[in-house]
Amino acid sequence: MLARMSFPPAHDALPQTSPASSSTAAAQLQIAAARSGPLFVVLNAGSGRNDADEQQALMSRVFFEAGRDVKFFQVSDPSQINVAAERAVSLAREHGGVVVAAGGDGTINAVASATLGSNCLFGVLPQGTFNYFGRANAIPQGTEAAARALMGADVVPTQVGLVNGRAFLVNASLGLYPQVLEDREAWKQRLGRSRLVAFFAALVTLVQARRQLGLEIEMAGQSTAMRTTTLFVGNNHLQLSQVGMHEKLVEAVDEGRLAGIAVRQTKSLVLLGLMLRGLVGTMGDDDNITAFSFRRLTVNVPRKRRIRVAVDGEILWMKGPLVFEVSPTPLMLLVPAPADRAQVA
User: Fold this and answer.
1) What residue ranges do the domains of the chain occupy?
2) Positive or negative, the Cα torsion across 186, 188, 190, 191?
3) Which of left, alpha, beta for 192 (phi over 0: left; psi -120 to 50: alpha)?
4) Direct distance between the N- and C-terminal alpha carbons of the chain, in angstroms, rounded to an integer
5) Least confident of 26-30, 169-173, 280-284
6) Regarding beta strands 258-263 and 289-294, do their DSSP bridges make them parallel or antiparallel, or are they unpaired?
7) Is 259 in a helix, a strand, or coil?
8) Residue 340: what pLDDT?
9) Which whole-number Å values give the CA distances from 52 to 49, 114, 143, 174, 213, in the listed order?
10) 289-294 β-sheet, strand order
């Protein structure tokens, strides 16, 4: 659906310039795109609890009032999100526009992955249950407020994590946590999407947990063996802060590193205790947690050729070894101007 049709011309053809002037020209093009470029919105019709058509109509009205051209890619089949994202990026590059993800953290991840390295700006309209990425970047959680904030947003380079080349904005993990997410999705299909359902699903999974993974880890040139129920790699300071990880680990993410968290125990009561500590924000004080920060981490799971990995809530199978690292290329994120920022909570 097009709210307006007069897309501006592409900006691909630039005159030969010096590196300094080229950098200035690129910055000017980014500002132009942020303030007046067309918007290419990938909308996940399955995210959140609101009607997708109503949400699209609301966004369209806000963008039309601001004088912005917009094209929507409304996706009802999750398997088509990557295709829609790639199409949105292609058009944004052609027309000097902005790629926008409207959905939960999984949708945002898929669209961000397609946008990373494209030189396109990236915007977010949160629609999911937890919305850690949007909340961490002070993006309003209401659709109308988020859409209006997008109109005057600033361009901020934002760190992206990679696992075997796949981008993640919030977290990536292996072991018990992917099982928790998989079971949570099954419960949501029965009981609906809410934080209470997510908590109940996690509770059931932890009670049944028994397995540990034997890992071989290499970091900063040193190798070590580790047994753990879960290896969790965080790239979101808000999530880490809310579960109570120590301030230095939270700050490490803001300083260009990733946070590693390993859980040693398998006993159900211990795991339940950890979950409760996370809910009240004191997980970092538990003796069963090993926490560290890094820029690159190689993880091998002996005798396993394929490993189940959770990436921003999506379950994937990857070939080992797993390489977790900070992307050398940041995501050019549109962050609300100070007057439009939501309180980070």
Assistant:
1) 19-159+329-340, 166-326
2) positive
3) left
4) 34
5) 280-284
6) antiparallel
7) strand
8) 95
9) 9, 22, 11, 32, 41
10) 289-294, 258-263, 230-234, 171-175, 306-311, 314-319
Among 191-195, 222-226, 324-328, where is mean pLDDT lowest?
Answer: 191-195
For the ranges 2-6, 96-100, 281-285, the one whose mean pLDDT is highest = 96-100
The CATH architecture one would assign to domain 166-326 is: Sandwich (2.60)
pLDDT in tens, 297-313: 999 998 888 998 989 98
Question: d(Cα 188, Cα 250) in Å, to the nearest integer?
Answer: 30
Q: Which two tokens stand for residue 56?
A: 């699209």
**Nearest alpha carbon to residue 50 among 130, 142, 124:** 142
Closest listed residue to residue 129, CA positions, set 189, 243, 47: 47
pLDDT for the residue 265? 55
Question: Is the pLDDT reported for residue 195 higher than 80?
Answer: no
Q: Which pLDDT value is given to residue 134?
A: 94
Same topology, domains 19-159+329-340 and 166-326? Answer is no
CB-CB contact of 331 with 157 (8 Å): yes
Query: For 228-280, what is each residue's pLDDT tens digit?
Result: 888 999 999 998 998 888 899 999 999 999 999 988 755 554 554 445 444 54
How far lies 247's CA from each of 125, 139, 238, 296, 325, in Å?
Answer: 29, 23, 11, 21, 21
* pLDDT value at 115 more than 60: yes
Exposed, middle or buried, 235 (CB in 10 Å: 0-12/13-18/19+)? Answer: buried
Euclidean distance between CA atoms 168 and 108, whole angstroms: 10
Sign of CA dihedral 329, 113, 147, 234: negative
Place of tokens 């300071």: 237
Mean pLDDT score, 102-116? 94
Phi and psi at 143, nearest 5°, equal -60, -50
CA angle at 52 for the pair 47 and 53, rounded to the nearest 5°: 175
Q: Which CATH architecture describes the domain 19-159+329-340?
A: 3-Layer(aba) Sandwich (3.40)
Q: Is 77 helix (H, G, I), strand (E, B) or coil?
A: coil
